[in-house]
């Protein structure tokens, strides 16, 4: 699926006669922007499933070890996509290092968020915040046009509410409410063993560890959202010029031309992070290739293809619409997290999370309509 999406984008990019917009303008008539958004939703929805492999989870690797494989897969795939494109020139930019710094930091945080909150709640929180941050960048820094400030702000407020509800769905709140309703007589007297366990866990002193994991998970998810929302800034600066840097003037689209710089930046920043971290701790990392090597490389490859699609969405639809729309991937994340991984269980928790997803989708829709 990922390869088919990337191939379709390359073919359309090769055959289309339209040029990417510049100077903060948008082009909603080009199919590339919408294809990129839809493709990124699908790829980003599935890209992290290998993080949940039982043996990867049991290995409890340092995030920077997994990130090494992850970054390598991302860089190799980005270069391969660039090589098979019709680009006939090499245009290196130092914005690739900025991208590498932002991306590596965000993915280390995302690894922690998924480990502590799961594949449903973690992405829901950071996706909503990503939309808010990306929108602010688009309006404040790149001067993307906004149809209605009031409507756009309303959409952001709806998003923030959705983020808060998504976070609470993975906390002790659903079980607490459920237990209180049972005690008030609104629930049948006969309870399942699972319900008894939940009540004992959250109401009889067993919540300490869970509460710590929840708070830590929310912290990492928020950090991921802040970084993730700034992720396309280097591409925008490479494409249109900003902060004193010149705009890209080559014949190919910036989404393709930026890939070599992205790869160099990722493969420079990742070992630098590892050297600083493990050097400070005076620790020799355990790479555990047999457990994490293939999952890490594939995860990086999947993400790189999703990022390639997202770059087209951002290039044509802007920071206010294009990249925020890619965060609708939380629908896929939620489906996998609830149905496949069973990370969120219980009627109250699932209903609460469903409400959160609705809020986030509505907020994203308002953002896209008024942005």
Automatic annotation (TrEMBL):
<feature type="transmembrane region" description="Helical">
    <location>
        <begin position="64"/>
        <end position="85"/>
    </location>
</feature>
<feature type="transmembrane region" description="Helical">
    <location>
        <begin position="34"/>
        <end position="52"/>
    </location>
</feature>
<comment type="similarity">
    <text>Belongs to the TMEM144 family.</text>
</comment>
<feature type="transmembrane region" description="Helical">
    <location>
        <begin position="253"/>
        <end position="280"/>
    </location>
</feature>
<feature type="transmembrane region" description="Helical">
    <location>
        <begin position="123"/>
        <end position="143"/>
    </location>
</feature>
<keyword id="KW-0472">Membrane</keyword>
<dbReference type="InterPro" id="IPR010651">
    <property type="entry name" value="Sugar_transport"/>
</dbReference>
<feature type="transmembrane region" description="Helical">
    <location>
        <begin position="348"/>
        <end position="366"/>
    </location>
</feature>
<feature type="transmembrane region" description="Helical">
    <location>
        <begin position="321"/>
        <end position="341"/>
    </location>
</feature>
<feature type="transmembrane region" description="Helical">
    <location>
        <begin position="149"/>
        <end position="173"/>
    </location>
</feature>
<dbReference type="Pfam" id="PF07857">
    <property type="entry name" value="TMEM144"/>
</dbReference>
<dbReference type="GO" id="GO:0015144">
    <property type="term" value="F:carbohydrate transmembrane transporter activity"/>
</dbReference>
<dbReference type="InterPro" id="IPR012435">
    <property type="entry name" value="TMEM144"/>
</dbReference>
<dbReference type="GO" id="GO:0016020">
    <property type="term" value="C:membrane"/>
</dbReference>
<keyword id="KW-1133">Transmembrane helix</keyword>
<protein>
    <submittedName>
        <fullName>Uncharacterized protein</fullName>
    </submittedName>
</protein>
<keyword id="KW-0812">Transmembrane</keyword>
<feature type="transmembrane region" description="Helical">
    <location>
        <begin position="287"/>
        <end position="309"/>
    </location>
</feature>
